[in-house]
Amino acid sequence: MGAIVEHRINEVHALKLTTWGGQRTTEQFQAIPATVQVPITHPGGVIDLNRGYGGIDAQWIARTRAWGGGLTLTAGLWSDKLDEHRQGYQNFLGAAARPTALGVQGALRRDEDNTVRSFDQYAQGVWEGERFSVSAGLRHSQVKFDSNDHFIVPGNGNDSGAVKYDATTPALGLVWHASDVLNLYAAMGKGFETPTTNELSYRPDGQPGLNFALQPARSRQWEVGVKAEPVPLWRVNAALFRAHTNDEIVVATNTGGRSTFQNASDTLRRGFELALDGAWAKSWSTYAALTWLDATYETQFTCVSTSCTPGNNLVAPGSRLPGIPKFTAYAEVAYRIAPWGLETALEWHHLGSMAVDDRNTTFTPTADVFSMRLSLRQLRDRWTFREFLRLDNIMDKTYVGSVIVNEGNRRYFEPAPGRTWLIGANAVYAF
């Protein structure tokens, strides 16, 4: 559940309060052999999670004029909290050598309470003039993880612990309104990404407790681009970007359905994005977009995955980050008749090749997939009715939709769905 409350104090000042809360439970049975779970330090093959979370974001907003243009100032406080009760069980009954039942919840092997708290303070200013717009922002973030271990038995000690991360990240942007049909922009800033609770949950060395050795990733990035309307009814967006990251959080191991994570070397992402949108006849339109992304490891690091072997476990500089296609593209041709509320389109998706592991030993093949959509819309007073039909992967093509990075048994490939269809209707009432 969530709620937003906005209050306008006067013509300049306003307040905005956003709050939310929720609950989530997860039970997962993993494909971990019973014999692997014999050590008392192993967390078992069944995960049982109960999570409650909530937060608040309070903003002060001022809109005024300064230096011949409009000025908007925003300052705020952000705080949220997650409480997690995590338990782990064996996924069998009886002795591991000869279990009497498999795929069931067995003996308790992990029991802990984890808490994550974050507290951020931020400020941002946006000035908009006739030819230029400038934005600047600053954010300070602090994130704390606390773990209280309740599964303390002989051979498995107290794995309680805590860790705190903090960073200050700036951002700056500039837009030049060169004409009514041409904008040029540039932006730069720093990023801060802490590990998630899932990434901290298990250690690559198989020992119990949270992976408190995992550090946050810190990045620096810039982007330049253009937004233009070269001819009436046709719009072009293009952007060139570069991001450098220290302590990138990457998959360390992937075995039996369980993932662990580590900090890798420096990484570099650089790329280009282009989008074209326009109408070339009364009822016909086209939209197309492509992305070229070169994501690589910049410096050498040691791969700890079970797919790496001693003496052959160094990831060389220039290796591609696994699971990221270098090239993706999308295009559609749409036909609309406004009075009838009819819209139909033929879509094309292109998925480029991806590396499946850090050492780039295997790549997925490229894939081209076609889809189609059709919808009708009717307006009745305050009601809007819509019926729709969608067909994905019309040709029923077999291709790799995603990969399991560094999968321990080298079963990297996950098949995408074959031909699928979706039919439905919705109704909206405007008060």
What helical percentage do the residues reach?
under 10%
Backbone CA Rg:
26 Å
User: Structural class per helix/strand content?
Assistant: mainly beta
Order of helices and strands: EEEEEEEEEEHEEEEEEEEEEEEEEE
Number of helices: 1
Q: What percent strand?
A: over 45%
Q: What is the β-strand count?
A: 25
Low-confidence stretches: none
Main sheet specs: 17 strands, antiparallel
Please give a handful of descriptors for the protein shown.
431 residues; single chain; mainly beta; 17-stranded antiparallel β-sheet; globular; two-stranded antiparallel ribbon
Write the layout of secondary structure elements.
Elements: E1 2-8, E2 13-29, E3 46-66, E4 69-89, E5 92-94, E6 99-102, E7 108-128, E8 132-149, E9 161-179, E10 182-193, H1 197-200, E11 217-231, E12 234-246, E13 249-255, E14 258-263, E15 267-279, E16 284-297, E17 301-302, E18 314-315, E19 327-337, E20 342-351, E21 367-380, E22 383-392, E23 400-403, E24 413-415, E25 420-429
Can you describe this structure?
There is one protein chain. By secondary structure, this protein is mainly β. About 0% of the residues lie in helices and about 65% in strands. It has 1 helix and 25 strands. The strands form 5 sheets. It has a 17-stranded antiparallel sheet, with no helix packed on it. β13 and β14 form a beta hairpin. The longest helix is centred in the middle third of the chain and has 4 residues. It is globular, with a radius of gyration of 26 Å. The mean pLDDT is about 95.
Summarize the structure.
With 431 residues, this protein is mainly β. 1% of the residues lie in helices and 64% in strands.
